[in-house]
Amino acid sequence: MELNDSTTDNLILKLFDAGAVKFGEFTLKSGIKSPVYFDLRVMVSYPEIMKEVSEVLWNIAEKMDAKFDSICGVPYTALPIATLMSVEHRKPMLIRRKEAKDYGTAKMIEGHFEKGDKCLVVEDIVTSGSSIFETSESLVAVGLKVTDAVVLLDRCQGGSARLQQHGINTESAFTIRKVLDVLVQHEKIKLPMKREVEEFIDGNQFESKSIFTPRKITPEVLTYAERAKLCKNPVARKLLNLIEEKQTNLAFAADVTDAEEFLKLADVLGPHICIFKTHIDILKNFSSDVVTKLKALAVKHRYLIFEDRKFADIGGTVKHQYRAGVHKIVEWADIVNAHPVPGHGVVEGLKEAASGKQRGCLLIAEMSSKGNLATGQYTAAAVKMAEEMSDFVIGFISQSAVSAKPYMIHMTPGVKLVPGSGTLGQQYVTPQQAIVEKGSDIIIVGRDIYEASNRVGAAANYKKVGYQAYCARMFRRKDKD
Ligand code: 5BU
Question: Which Pfam families match (predicted)?
């Protein structure tokens, strides 16, 4: 939806003169090298340009006949533009936080709204469409509707088509092709540069099929209890059912070294958790009595025990490590996990050792620590291996829903109410980000609970926030039905 030519040309030239369009070699967020770069953040230094851009975007929304109750700018560049549109036309604005707020609230959207209200998304540039999509997802998660987005510049790389597939109609003031034409016409760039950029655009299209995270589909359309019915493995079934019954998707990482403290936590936190996750080898005073007591507490409070042993050897060795030695893990842990790096044998070895018992295994498909190698093809291979052995493999340790199979359970460590970096490379996301945005099923929380002055209060809060995030995901489903 281009505006009349002279208005568009003028605006493009003003943006060029302000330094918002640059030619050279630039590395984009995706890692791809681009011969052109738009930095529309510089607009904040040019009030007249800002005003003009906001008017242009408002006019586009009017021409689209978009009906909306509020406006939300994709953070950060589009925030001032949305603000101007809101003030000038007296339309309420909403702000989407990039990070959840302080302890306890985990609020992603600021401002007043009613469930079912329609919100117009405003953005400076659309490339893959993922920024608009993410903002829209956060709005939808709290009950808003998003059907329209207005953008200043479309890089013509397939973003609008992808958004359209998700029901978001996106209109731009002008395209990158228009920018090139105007700049050549006004002798700001030469023809070869125009050709180079055009070649880049043609060679860097985002496929409209591989839209965002298709895996989000599964967890979002079924409840935990509905998914329980689809599980072959009885441990997975039990876990999904008890999550729904106890209304908690919190796994507690019991990383304390004293057995007495460990058992105390297993008792007092019991009502708030679905899983008690152990690193049994860090206990300085381990005895078989500890696990006998832990098992009794797990029955009393109805949670499962997950020994985070991360097996990573050949099948024959992990079989012994699982059932023998001091800890005899197979005797008491409902769930264990393994690195897929040795190949199928690691799972086969564990499965043999668990024969005759109700046990489940998680594969580590992604890790929370900075610089870890479990990414891309490695993650994809982990998913394939798990799906091939789904009688014993019940899911993943991952940062997102890596499998679309409804019987696969995703557990995410590195969770805190305030996201950021921890010590020794640990990285944190919020429960909202893990469950709503990344489509995970269970949050794993350690130090934010055992280091709290009120441990039970902290666990109760995580229980509430984690389950609310799941409910927000389900609300979105109902909205779509
Ligand atoms: P924290 O205190 O909430 O950072 O504890 C996280 C727990 O999850 C801790 O027991 C780790 O060993 C475990 N963990 C993790 O943090 N990141 C991973 O990728 C995997 C496990 Br796998």
Answer: OMPdecase, Pribosyltran
Instruction: Decide whether any atom of ligand 1 lies within 6 Å of the 414 Cβ.
Output: yes
Which residue in 251, 451, 449, 452 sits closest to 334, CA to CA?
Answer: 251
**Which bin fits 407, alpha (ψ -120 to 50), beta or left (φ > 0)?**
alpha
* Annotated binding-site positions: 255, 277, 368, 426, 446-447
Return averaged pLDDT per consecutive 10 residues of the chain, 481 residues in all: 74 97 84 88 96 97 94 96 98 85 58 95 92 88 92 94 88 97 96 94 73 42 89 96 96 98 98 98 98 98 98 98 98 98 98 98 96 92 96 97 94 93 90 93 98 97 95 60 30
Same fold, 5-203 and 224-474: no
What pLDDT shows up at residue 213?
45
The residue contributing the CA closest to ligand 1 atom 3 is: 446
Q: Are 387 and 405 in contact (CB under 8 A)?
A: yes
Top-level class of domain 5-203: alpha beta
Of 51, 313, 328, 405, the catalytic one is 313
Among this protein's residues, is 310 annotated catalytic? yes
Q: Which residues are annotated as a binding site for substrate?
A: 255, 277, 368, 426, 446-447
Element (DSSP H or E) covering residue 124: strand 119-126
What are the sequence ranges of the domains in the chain? 5-203, 224-474
Whether 194 is catalytic is: no
